[in-house]
Automatic annotation (TrEMBL), chain A:
Name of the protein described by the UniProt record: Xanthine dehydrogenase, molybdenum binding subunit apoprotein
Pfam family, one: MoCoBD_1
UniProt biased composition (Polar residues): 1-15
Region (Disordered): 1-26
PANTHER family per UniProt: XANTHINE DEHYDROGENASE (PTHR11908), XANTHINE DEHYDROGENASE SUBUNIT D-RELATED (PTHR11908:SF157)
UniProt GO MF annotations: iron ion binding; oxidoreductase activity
Residue stretches making up the Aldehyde oxidase/xanthine dehydrogenase a/b hammerhead domain: 34-141
Species in which this protein is naturally found: Actinacidiphila paucisporea
Automatic annotation (TrEMBL), chain B:
Ranges of residues in domain FAD-binding PCMH-type: 1-169
GO molecular function (one): oxidoreductase activity
Record protein name field: CO or xanthine dehydrogenase, FAD-binding subunit
Pfam family, one: FAD_binding_5
InterPro entries associated with the record: CO_DH_flav_C (IPR005107), CO_DH_flav_C_dom_sf (IPR036683), Diverse_Substr_Oxidored (IPR051312), FAD-bd_PCMH (IPR016166), FAD-bd_PCMH-like_sf (IPR036318), FAD-bd_PCMH_sub1 (IPR016167), FAD-bd_PCMH_sub2 (IPR016169), Mopterin_DH_FAD-bd (IPR002346)
Swiss-Prot/TrEMBL keywords: FAD, Flavoprotein, Oxidoreductase
Keyword field contains DNA-binding: no
UniProtKB/TrEMBL annotation, chain C:
Pfam families in alphabetical order: Fer2, Fer2_2
Coiled-coil segments: none
Record keyword Oxidoreductase present: yes
GO function terms (MF aspect): 2 iron, 2 sulfur cluster binding; metal ion binding; oxidoreductase activity
The keyword Iron appears for this protein: yes
Protein name: Carbon-monoxide dehydrogenase small subunit
Residue ranges of every copy of the 2Fe-2S ferredoxin-type domain listed in the record: 1-78
Keyword terms: 2Fe-2S, Iron, Iron-sulfur, Metal-binding, Oxidoreductase
Amino acid sequence: MGITRTPTSLTQSEATRGGIGESTLRPDGTLKVTGEFAYSSDLWHEDMLWGYTLRSTVAHATIASIDTGEALATPGVYAVLTYDDLPTEVKHYGLEIRDTPVLAHGKVRHHGEPVALVAADHPETARRAAAKIRVVYEPLPVITDEASATAPDAVLVHDGREDHHIGHVAHPNIVHRQPILRGDADRAAARADVVVSGEYVFGMQDQAFLGPESGLAVPAEDGGVDLYVATQWLHSDLRQIAPVLGLPERKVRMTLSGVGGAFGGREDLSMQIHGCLLALRTGKPVKIVYNRFESFFGHVHRHPARLWYEHGATRDGKLTHVRCRIVLDGGAYASASPAVVGNAASLSIGPYVVDDVDIEALALYTNNPPCGAMRGFGAVQACFAYEAQMDKVAARLGMDPVEFRQINAMEQGTVMPTGQLVDSPAPVAELLRRVKSRPLPPERQWETTEGADVRALPGGLSNTTHGEGVVRGVGYAVGIKNVGFSEGFDDYSTARVRMQVINGEPVATVHTAMAEVGQGGVTVHAQIARSELGVTQVTILPADTRVGSAGSTSASRQTYMTGGAVKNTCEAVREKVFDLGRRKFGTYHPAWATAELLLEGGRVVTDGGEALAEIADVLEDEVVDLELEFRHRPTQAFDLRTGQGNGHVQYSFAAHRAVVEVDTELGLVKVVELACAQDVGKALNPLSVVGQIQGGTTQGLGVAVMEEIVVDPKTALVRNPSFTDYLIPTILDTPTIPVDVLELADEHAPYGLRGVGEAPTLSSTPAVLAAIRQATGLELNRTPVRPEHLTGS
Amino acid sequence: MEFLRPASWQEALAAKAEHPSAVPIAGGTDVMVEINFDHRRPDHLLDLNRIGELEEWETGEDTVRLGASVPYSKIMAGLRRELPGLALASHTVASPQIRNRGGVGGNLGTASPAGDAHPALLAGGAAVEAESVRGSRLIPIDDFYTGVKRNALAPDELIRAVHLKKASGPQQFSKVGTRNAMVIAVCAFGIALHPDTRTVRTGIGSAAPTPVRARTAEEFLAAALDEAGLWESRKAVPPAVAKQFAVLVAAAANPIDDVRGTAAYRRHALGVMARRTLGWTWEQYRGHGSEQGSTSCA
Amino acid sequence: MRVSFTVNGRPQEADDVWEGESLLYVLRERLGLPGSKNACEQGECGSCTVRLDGVPVCSCLVAAGQAQDRRVDTVEGLAGEGGELSPIQQAFVDAGAVQCGFCTPGLLVAADELLEHNPSPSDGDIREALSGNLCRCTGYEKILDAVRLAAARTGQAV
């Protein structure tokens, strides 16, 4: 038996077929409910070895020595690798800046950094051997915040930086800085009747995807390697992996294995290079699976942030100006920090019209855990702060907070602080109106004829209150997120579509490298192919690197980009079918030449509905097979001094109303309802759209009341790398989430759609915080809120 | 590592005598996490799952002898009347899956101050039946916890059962966690009214190096109830008494700041829980509350 | 050591089991049954939920040796002999309760057991029964929908 549990093609039964706009069911649904779906941790190969990663136990230290002798001598151990064993001169990787060592070299910069690798015949053998590797660390001072990072005599986290940001930052411990200056904030401030300022802190959130980092590397006879892995962007991985291995990209064949959630945490590499190195060294297949403890060190987290804001407004409720400064902690390696800075800066004032702004965002290098992509990055941290500010200003003005937001709400035609004109619908006021007009959930839902149902109370099953101390609060928030890659990045996706006749029926096969991480892209691709090609049978091939890049499953971009690529390629395939039809049948019917042609129900039809031919008769033995790239409108880099530039391709908007009940004596929170309204342009699959919104909303709830990676400020060691102490919401923490979906088309986007995934994660958190503030009367400038913040103890 | 699978209690005692460092495993909640995360590599694992009697309980005239491995889900369902405090505590243990496997023997063996059963065992005045090939003994719960994750067991002893008096009055349990289910205690509190002896007992979890009682608070409350004749009159507890009880419970704790919460919050929360659970138990004693308070439907 | 037990009605045996291995590891890596998932290995997520002698447990917290001679039922045993989905499986697909799907097997085993004992659960009952199963994708709303749907369909069928 060779390799098992690798991905298979997806086709659907009759019952689940549908075109765009329908709530077609997932083609992988049956595999997932039967346990048959092959996740990356399920991979198995006869004779495979288990890889294990030895990680640093300190955050910042020079490595005086590493002794692997005893580990290598352990029976059952096939290889032990350190930095010295790396095969080429390329020993670092990184999404944008190649600053991350494949294995630590002379120094470790954060807790949990990979130092050595072991391959053995059993995971326990590998662990025991790793425990015998002797690493001598000589501690260095730890950089943990802005003050320690930018002190004149600060130790540099990275010596000798050569990346393209070093020229415009004030200190080598700043990864990237983006100011945005527009209008004249000083002059505008003079017009303000009220000025409100605040300092806010956003804690470090973890993606906490349930499927741990894992994969299988199989050495090939041509000297290359086949890598099966859970990731968000195969081709980005490939570009980083191949040079380290010293292999041409064609010899590193990557296939996407089943992905157990991602949320940004798989945008950076984890076990990919390590698995390949061990496989190539031992000549055997190597599987690596992180456990939950290791997973907390195996991926980047959401940037914690400190944010300073000043908002001014006139008595009639018009914002005059915003000044803000956002400091993001990027941790030890750059990862996506530059892009996070760009988003935080350009979206820092929220979906509001403000002509005069003075904005600065930057990311630090520190010895804290590396931070990078997570759902809504940059925009999430800013939204928490600017929405708190909006409530504060409204309160100062004595205005209703929703009305105040509506007065200042941006709309189509608004000019962003970057100078970019918003040229598609931006229904901010309408989204707020919708969540506000919804009836409030009934009070005291915990009261039953048999007494209090603690499941409906703060504290839940822990039986802390039967209604004592419980106060209700209601809060609102709205946010703005960019969709797709910004700032001049060449953002494209590739789709290959084949059409042929099988058993007398036309069948479409769609092949992309899109990472299906749970979002339902595979469902939508099949829907698009059905709608564009008029077929019922669509096969979705496994994602791999034999087809061109699909870009990342992030930035709410995949339906737009790879969906757009599938649509685009289907249209080209369709034209080929029409050409074939014209050649074969054109002389028999003038409509072939004169009418608008469509593919519907397995036939070529005119726009008038007249059937001209069966697709099967047009194609016969012909196979139409095209692979095309799709690009969104080009964007521009932000000016490094003024932040001006058409940096984004599309914006998405969501609003939330949170209803909470707070046990004000114990500081415990029950979120009762979290209503959301979001504009999605066009819901290609309404069921999936609502699922994305509810899931994103819940991640925002998590960081409002419980989720935080706690890092010791003295040692930079992670204090809670487990699901016992890093808590994510259970079903008893999650309220009903009614969703109101608007569909206002963006004429620039495929089908008019607007990326969905991230926007609900933005406004959920500040809405919950606003509701807690209303219930408690406390200022609460930090998220997550902990019980002691609510009780003052 | 060796896996020992005794088929009877006597075999288990013999195995423990032969390998005093053997780690007993029943529900696996603590031991398997330590093994999965490479925190512990015992020479011997001593499986207690094959000893059926550990999963049984006997109800006598006044007492319950609760097997060490009776799963929390069965305590919740089957002993609500006899051991209401422990039943309530059982309901807060981890998740349904873990409540199906774990029992009080595990909490006692690990002796973590965060174990959910401890406050109820302290308030209920339990005695731990420990046994070795040398013989059997009953260890009063007050003497059982000897330090951080340390207990009074000898190396060759195993926990066979816990003895508890059937409740003679209302009991309550309350725990603070930062999630509404499946959460480890930031701190916890148990209270049992014992009208037969006119005493009150309490238990505090996660707020000291070991689970502890709030003895001064207990004595204060019992005296206050006695002096005012409240046991007989069943009148409301004066707010000042409840308040002072809460203050004394908070004072009995010796908490620390850790990743789960601050010491100050723990003291504060214990006071709130003490006041509330006293209110619930007393209302029930007065005949106003439903049988096990409101949490019966939880 | 050797461990033998019944999985989904069929006797199974695993050899050379390391004494520290969990039932989850043996199912996934030795018996070719990776449906039960390895999300946390500390009893805090429910993804590895199986039934041990009929009772839902976290298989990551069962030492392999403890399963000796016992009956284990996994997600792979939910569907019928002919592969037809059980009501709860079908409801999860139909209600959109599956996204990445990593939590799904554990939720199915837990929900299946809930409906066995409580064929028409209230929302509170569903939430409590599933409070040991974390999901990171869905926000749980569609999972609730799925359990309600399965209960309704089963109720109608009776």
